[in-house]
Specification:
It is built from 8 helices and 14 strands. The chain has about 325 residues and is an alpha+beta fold.
């Protein structure tokens, strides 16, 4: 009799476990008397009955379902295993670890910019982290219709909205389009908050989001690199000189591509405005410097002055003076 009964016993466990699998559903099989539940480290086991949670078990180990699991199930705790009868439930195994995923824009994002009708094409890449934090929402939105869920499924969903979020946090927040890397932390923080609010309805939490780098079209990136290497920030004269020399020596005045032409036009307009301001200031300074020269010159000082009158007595010793310029007694200068 014992042999006959044991042949119906089975093991409830996560079969064919994968590191990139978020959850796995064990279903469509009857749990018999003597069955075991195996929970491995990093896993939770959720017992479901008609789509509702019966019980959640989070400690890893091996459990006897009849004596250690059934008594803790909400509506099935009074279930009694009879001969050749079993309990039909679903068991959802959830991976509790935090997943790290690499992301990158598939196509360039055309960020709107003044003077660029088609926008500035920019790419970006980085990583994000997520984990399951709400079993009820996970079951209602995803596990109710899927037997398994992979990291790739989450990545596809994130990538589908990432372009709009990048554009939002670059454009609406007024970030410097030519220096996005300096604002990468703030942009990433805003995107993480938006993603977390969107994924929360599915029981997932976005625990981190990082932007590793932004990339521009090659022609624009070369201009940015040149600007940094020559220390031209705030030194428009140096930028003008180097740009003119490079253009004349390399012959790259034309054919640089739409993005670089438009970016160069934007920089050129800024440069022209700064040059005009500087020229106006220089003209004003020159006029101010020339103004004193136009005033009538003062009368020239007399080339010679009359000699001072020689005293009759030396102011130092009182001796009567003669015709000399020095006192004959003490040598004091008289004139």
């Amino acid at each position: 009799m014992s042999f006959f009964r044991n042949q119906f016993a089975n093991v409830v466990e996560w079969e064919e476990f994968r590191e990139d699998m978020i959850f796995y559903k064990w279903k469509n099989r009857e749990i018999k008397k003597g069955s075991k539940l195996i929970i491995r480290p990093g896993q939770d086991a959720i017992f479901l009955n008609n789509g509702s949670i019966e019980g959640a078990f989070q400690e890893d180990g091996e459990y006897d379902i009849e004596s250690q699991i059934v008594p803790f199930l909400s509506t099935l705790k009074g279930f009694k295993f009879g001969f050749n009868s079993g309990m039909r439930v679903e068991v959802l195994f959830v991976n509790t670890k935090e997943f790290t995923v690499k992301w990158g824009t598939k196509n360039a994002i055309n960020i709107p910019a003044t003077g660029l009708p088609g926008g500035m094409p920019i790419r970006a890449n980085g990583t994000f982290q997520f984990k399951v934090n709400d079993y009820i929402s996970l079951i209602d939105k995803i596990a109710g219709i899927k037997n398994q869920y992979l990291v790739e499924d989450v990545k596809i969903r994130i990538i589908s909205v990432l372009d709009q979020l990048l554009m939002k946090w670059i454009v609406t927040e007024g970030k410097d389009m030519f220096n996005l890397q300096a604002n990468a932390f703030e942009i990433a923080k805003g995107i993480r908050e938006d993603l977390d609010s969107q994924m929360a309805e599915s029981g997932l939490s976005i625990t981190g989001f990082q932007i590793m780098s932004f990339s521009y079209p090659k022609e624009v990136q070369d201009m940015i690199n040149k600007n940094a290497s020559h220390g031209m920030v705030g030194n428009i004269d140096k930028y003008q000189q180097i740009s003119m020399i490079d253009s004349m020596s390399s012959g790259k005045n034309s054919g640089g591509g739409t993005a670089s032409d438009m970016a160069g036009m934007m920089m050129g307009m800024n440069m022209a405005n700064q040059m005009m301001d500087k020229m106006n200031k220089q003209n004003q300074n020159q006029q101010q410097n020339q103004q004193p020269a136009s005033e009538p010159a003062s009368e020239p000082a007399p080339q010679s002055q009359e000699k001072k009158q020689r005293p009759n007595f030396c102011p130092n010793c009182g001796t009567k003076t003669g015709e000399g310029n020095f006192c004959s007694n003490c040598g004091h200068k008289l004139v």
